[in-house]
């Protein structure tokens, strides 16, 4: 049985409040996502944004309209009353992935490090539905979890200066997709042709926190 969730908050500058929930895990992430959605839907006057991360929620506000103390008083009953998001994501994206070769230059090395074959790595990676736990690092970059335990590896010892857009990667118990050409230290096992981020789109990011993702080998 998982320990009950506990919330802590602290000022984050003069116009923001940072909430953190522990223990870190899937339930904590679901609680953060549900609270963020509820806060956006019922926001008091003066609240500017609610930005979820894996186990935290950053709330920005206009201090001349909404004080930190008033925001905390409004939030406190919500922490116990808002249930976590459903265990199964409601909106699931299926993304095609070309694994290995030029699209996934680290696949063979990953398989060797894990004492698996490349096909076993692919089978494991495509075997589960991942949750978008947060967007971060760069616009539209999804942190997806949980990654099957058999695929857990630390980040690469030496990051790359440029990772192609669409690269599907794993590191530190998570999988992610590089939305644009970026530097990065995750292990590249494949690439999707799907556009993850379009600055002119509405919304610009294809994936949102709380969405589900399934990878399909092609």
TrEMBL record:
GO terms for molecular function: ATP binding; hydrolase activity. The keyword Glycoprotein does not apply. It comes from Candidatus Viridilinea mediisalina. Residues 7-207 form the Carboxyltransferase domain. NCBIfam families: 5-oxoprolinase subunit PxpB. This is Carboxyltransferase domain-containing protein. InterPro entries: CT_C_D (IPR003833), Cyclophilin-like_dom_sf (IPR029000), PxpB (IPR010016). Keywords: ATP-binding, Hydrolase, Nucleotide-binding. Pfam families: CT_C_D.
């Amino acid at each position: 049985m998982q320990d009950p969730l506990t919330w802590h908050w602290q000022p984050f500058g003069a116009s923001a409040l940072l909430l953190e929930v522990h223990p870190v895990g899937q339930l904590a992430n679901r609680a953060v996502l549900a609270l963020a959605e509820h806060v956006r839907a019922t926001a008091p006057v003066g609240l500017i944004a609610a930005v979820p991360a894996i186990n935290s929620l950053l709330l920005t506000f206009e201090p001349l309209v909404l004080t930190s103390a008033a925001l905390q008083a409004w939030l406190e009953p919500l922490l116990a009353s808002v249930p976590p998001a459903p265990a199964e994501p409601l909106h699931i994206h299926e993304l095609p992935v070309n694994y290995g070769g030029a699209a996934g230059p680290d696949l063979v090395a990953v398989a060797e490090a894990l004492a698996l074959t490349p096909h076993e790595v692919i089978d494991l990676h495509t075997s589960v539905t991942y949750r978008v736990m947060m967007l971060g690092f760069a616009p539209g970059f999804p942190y997806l979890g949980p990654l099957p335990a058999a695929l857990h590896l630390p980040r690469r010892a030496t990051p790359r200066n440029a990772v192609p857009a669409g690269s599907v990667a794993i590191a530190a118990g998570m999988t992610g997709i590089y939305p644009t050409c970026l530097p990065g230290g995750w292990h590249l096992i494949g690439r999707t042709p799907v556009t993850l981020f379009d600055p002119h789109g509405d919304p610009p990011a294809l994936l949102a926190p709380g969405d589900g993702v399934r990878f399909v080998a092609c």
